[in-house]
Amino acid sequence: MLNEQLARARMSERLGEAQQLRAAGSMTRARRLSRKAERAALQARLALARAL
């Protein structure tokens, strides 16, 4: 009975860790995408400035 409760507690702990890691991964991806978007916007502004 006690072992079962311990196993459940450990499992939910691991699940929580996995979810946190996944959230951190998506934050990293979002940051990378926003940096890429900022770079693209800068390139577009430079191209527009050159065209004028």
Automatic annotation (TrEMBL):
Report the domain of life of the source organism: Bacteria
Q: What is this protein called?
A: Uncharacterized protein
